[in-house]
Amino acid sequence: MDQTTHARLGAPSRTATRSLLIVGVAAAAMAATPALAQDASTPAPQSAQGASVTPYPAAFFAAQRPSTAMDMVYRLPGFSFDDGANVRGFAGAAANVVINGRRPTSKTDDVGSILSRLPADQVERIDVIRGGAPGIDMQGKAVIANVVLKSGSGFTGVVAVASTFSEDGRIMPDYRLEGTWRAGDTRLEAGLNGTHFADDTAGSGPHLIRDGSGAITDRSQMQNRSGTWQQTGTAAWEGPVAGGRLRVNAMAQDQAVISTFADDFVHAGKQYEKDTQDKVNGELGLHWDRTLGATTVELIGLQHLNHTGFASLFRTPAETDFFGLRTTGGESIGRLVLHCSGFDKLTLEGGGEFAYNWVNTHTLFTVNGAATAIPAGNVRVDEKRGEVFTTATWRPSAQLMVEAGVRVEDSVIGSTGDVVLSKSLMFAKPRVLVTWSPDPVDQLRLRVEREVGQLDFGSFAASSSLNGAGIHAGNPNLSPNQDWALEAAYERRFWDKGSITLTARHMILKDVIDRVPIVSSSGVFDAPGNIGGGTENDLAANLSLPLDRLGVPRATLTGVATWRFSRVTDPTTGVVREISGQHQADAELHFVQDLPELKTSWGVDAFRGATEHYYRFGEVDTWDPGNWIGGFVEYKPRRDLSVRWEFNNLGRRPVDFTRQVYPGLRTPTATPSLIDQQERNFGAQIRFRVRKTF
Predict the structure, then answer these.
(1) Residues 534-579: pLDDT tens digits?
(2) Bridge partners, 71 (sequence order)
């Protein structure tokens, strides 16, 4: 399953929803019974510091024969991995996994990639921390996992080769080379990874054009294909420096994407689009910390640079369009954090962060060779942002913990070129989290927080979909979306390996970023923009159900579901609707069974793709990815060798894309004049991988 598929999965089908309800009821019934003895073959985790920290030693995962730390994280009971957000700044990009109590000083080389490179035999244990623990920066997360590494000396190397075979005939090879050298307190890591991805939203299939009454006016059989080739090199050194510990990491990445979309309509004739993109990223990170008595000093520095070139050519019998975009940007971050735990029941933390972000974009759009201006097509935007923060964690008893803090952010954003502006923004972001653990298996978490999103610099630049919604303008004059979040979560652990978590969340929204029309001398363009306030209510369930007691030994069923109900006012029609692009529901089910006597693990994964609606000024676009089913079989004849087969999209589900185009601006009573329906059939995939550890 490729990255694009993950981005579009979500809303539960009737079958998936019914399955989640069944296992949820079953888990609730089990949770109502006292915790029972665990299978003696697996050491039971023991809670520490009340019920806030649950350590899972390496022996807990032994029967599963994990290859990497990522394999172990995926098997943590009741824990859902979150790789963090790709946003500006360091604080807002936090994942919910740390390594040795520290976040990796990287944003492009994400935590998931680092954990996938980390051999399982280097992990001593993984602590799941609920609510908070002294010395651990929770970064606003209610639950995180801390991967604690072993000390020692030696070398560990990994060589892996893989190939993905698609139903459309493509063969996509991958490779991975990694090495870790340890000498006491010093570690040196290096890796090289080459990966192919296929965009499963670019499949081929029937393409129908209908008029406002629904009658078919034209048809075609699409021939679409999109793929990515990515090369990534990483290196890191970690060791004692100046009485503390320093980690230096570097990353270089090159990513090329080629996409083609071809139609041969009965009446309109041939249409063809080719998109090419080359993106280069480079990153350097520094992380130094030192303990001075009861205080720990932490210094973080990060420098990121990127360059992207994009070109799109679209041809019809009557017209040739070209869109080109060149973007160069960078981010510089400096961060200081002080942790003080010298008080009996109180831990204090404070510090500050400064970030400088910039992006320089140049676009060219031509229609039959004639240039057409695009709003915010050629701009330079920079931002200077500072933040100070303080947090107090009070633990009056082993059962109760209160975390209270505030962050104050001040930024100046300016742009030159097509849009000249300068504005200052300041936000205070208070937060209170109360965690109550009346016994070792129950926990209630209550959170009140003012959340402020971080602006995506990609929204400042123009973009294109020439054979779809057309040109989208950029908008440097954005304000970050904000909300007041009220959240309650209840977690119940049962059968030592099982857990169920129910979460309810209410958010009062302000300055929601959605789609707005921008009028210029060249016409009206769709663009991101602030549309005012609104509300959102979320319900979430997370289940980890061990099946040993139900007659399926060494097997686990996990399920995650989130339902979202948002209400905002459409800036074009004035009608209340959901937020553009938001998943109304996400759901997934995973079954995994370990067969140690056969040295094999196998599993099945099921997702329901979330339908996405984008409300533009003159059309409504809908993506419906449909159901996705996959599975895997992994054989480990030796501890240092694994062979894995993956079977993706076994149901061969299509991705449906529909455009409802209106004559001018949408109105509450208007009907579309054109309906563009595409059924994109990607087909199934088989992936084969061999991994050897030295």
Answers:
(1) 999 999 999 999 999 999 999 999 999 999 999 999 999 999 999 9
(2) none
Is beta strand 463-465 parallel, antiparallel or unpaired with respect to 205-211?
Answer: unpaired
Rounded to the nearest 5 percent, the helix, strand and coil shares of the chain are 10, 60, 30
Coil/strand/helix, residue 24: helix
Closest CA to 249 of 333, 187, 308: 187
- Statement: residue 501 has pLDDT above 50: yes
Nearest to 60 by CA among 77, 45, 48, 40: 45
Could you read off the pLDDT of 610-661 as tens digits, one per residue?
Answer: 899 999 999 999 999 988 999 999 999 988 899 999 999 998 889 999 999 9
Residues 540 and 143: their CA atoms lie apart, in Å, by: 15
β-bridge partners, 387: 353, 409
Which residue has 């099921």 as its token pair?
A: 606
Task: Say if residues 576 and 569 touch (Cβ distance below 8 Å).
Answer: yes
| Residue 628 vs residues 226, 650, 689: alpha-carbon distances, Å | 19, 7, 21
**Would you give the distance in Å from CA 87 to the centre of its chain?**
11
What would the pLDDT profile of 211-250 be if each residue is shown by its tens digit?
989 999 999 999 999 999 999 999 999 999 999 999 999 9
Residue pair 476/377 in contact by the 8 Å Cβ criterion: no
Return the number of other C-beta atoms located less than 10 Å from residue 332's C-beta: 14
Beta pairing class for 97-99 and 143-149: parallel
Residue 352: pLDDT band (50, 70, 90) is: very high
Residue 683 sits at the vertex; the CA angle it makes with 682 and 688, to the nearest 5 degrees, is 115
Give the span between the Cα atoms of 336 and 351, in whole angstroms.
5
| Residue ranges with strand state E in 150-215 | 154-166, 171-183, 186-198, 205-211
Apex CA 636: angle with CA 630 and CA 641, to 5°? Answer: 115
Q: Which residues pair with 524 in a beta bridge?
A: 519
Whole-angstrom distance, CA of residue 306 vs CA of residue 331 = 9
3-state secondary structure at position 512: coil
As a whole number of angstroms, the distance between CA 361 and CA 486 comes to: 39
132, two tokens: 């908070």
With pLDDT > 90 as the criterion, what percentage of the chain qualifies? 60
3-state secondary structure of 318: coil
**Torsion (CA) 569, 573, 575, 579 in degrees, nearest 10:** -40
Q: Do residues 444 and 436 touch, judged by C-beta distance below 8 A?
A: yes
Question: 506: closest CA among 537, 540, 539?
Answer: 537
Angstrom distances, CA of residue 34 to CA of 215, 495, 538 = 62, 9, 30
- Burial call 552-571: b when 16+ CB within 10 Å, e when fewer: eebbbbbbbbbbbebebbbb
Displacement of CA 276 from its chain's centroid (Å): 24
| 619 token code pair | 């059309």
Terminal-to-terminal C-alpha distance of the chain? 28
How far apart CA 419 and CA 377 sit, in angstroms, is: 9
Q: Tell me how crowded residue 502 is: count the other CB atoms within 10 A of its CB.
A: 16
Most confident of 17-21, 139-143, 439-443, 576-580: 576-580
Alpha carbons within 13 A on the beta-carbon side of 339 = 17
